[in-house]
Amino acid sequence: MKVAILVFPGSSCERDCYHVLTKVFGLESELVWHTETDLARFDAIILPGGSSYGNYLRPGALAKFSPVMDRVIEAAESGTPILGIGNGFQILLEAGLLPGAMLANESLRFQCHPQDIRVEVDRTPFTHGIAPGTLLNLPIAHGEGNYFIDQAGQARLEANKQIALRYVGSNPNGSVSDIAGICNEAGNVVGMMPHPERAAEAVLGSVDGQKIFKALINYWEAKK
Amino acid sequence: MYKAEIKVTLKPGVLDPQAKAVAGGLSSLGYNEVESVRVGKYIEVILEADSAEAAASRVEEISRRLLTNPVIEDFSFSLTPMEGEA
Question: Which of A34, A165, B2, B50 is the most buried (most CB within 10 A)?
């Protein structure tokens, strides 16, 4: 399996993802600049965290027009596993690959701490094989992670089992229904605010983030 | 040439944390008559168009495609013809 890690101007978590995929899991991976127009050689795509385009206008608003995004949209339609982390999640929302939008945290503070997260569904490639109800301790680090969707949209998310991850304990940003991560209807596109790549080695205090990447590997093996 | 002045606001019902903080600030300064506050954005776009109608339809389009996120934001704009064009 070969994983693309997209790099936009202002991305800052791409090397952490690359390190985890290649060094912790021994996967083939490539950092892919946002002007790339061919993603055919990849089996999965990660949009990492950071502040693409300085978060100007709205987080993710400018990155959605990067040339690579047309290929990401095609890949999403053809069922390729795609994970957006933090700012990557915001880009997927702005690009319309996931429903809803992000608002500033209710507290107006940048929230940066370890957070308990509950896995809600195992039908996505990034939660494959993780029993719903499993708790993960993952770092969050964001100022605009207050996920918003209107009531009709929220009902659709619930009905289609698109709420993938929820905050447990106190909600750090005011998101609707404690949402920390969602998937598209098909389940192959996932966005999450917590950072699994920052919790994938014991030296970093938690290895719970490994489960997200391991899930992708297991999903891939099972599909073969 | 036209100048479009575009006003972007959060939709009614969408929580506005910035405005809440501003309202709190005003209240602590003693402006107790302030009933509510909403914070938005002002964007100025200068564009070339054959007519006011054409300019308006263009501004409408760019506002929808990029300047705002229709999930959480509304927009309105005014157009002014600019003097001194070639």
Answer: A165
Domain residue spans of chain B: 2-81
State the CATH class of domain B2-81: alpha beta
Q: How far is CA A64 from CA A59, A60, A181, in A?
A: 10, 6, 19
| Closest residue of chain B to A94, computed from CA coordinates | B69
Say whether A57 and B66 touch across the interface (CB within 8 A): yes
- The answer to whether A99 and A190 have CB atoms below 8 angstroms apart is no
Q: Write the ipTM.
A: 0.84
Interface touch B17/A104, C-beta < 8 Å: yes
Q: Which domains does chain A have, with CATH numbers?
A: 2-223 (3.40.50.880)
Q: Are residues A106 and B71, on separate chains, in Cβ contact within 8 Å? A: no
Alpha carbon distance A39, A77 (integer Å):
13
**B9 beta partners:** B40, B74
Whole-prediction pTM: 0.94
A30-80 pLDDT per residue, tens: 999 999 999 999 999 999 999 999 999 999 999 999 999 999 999 999 999
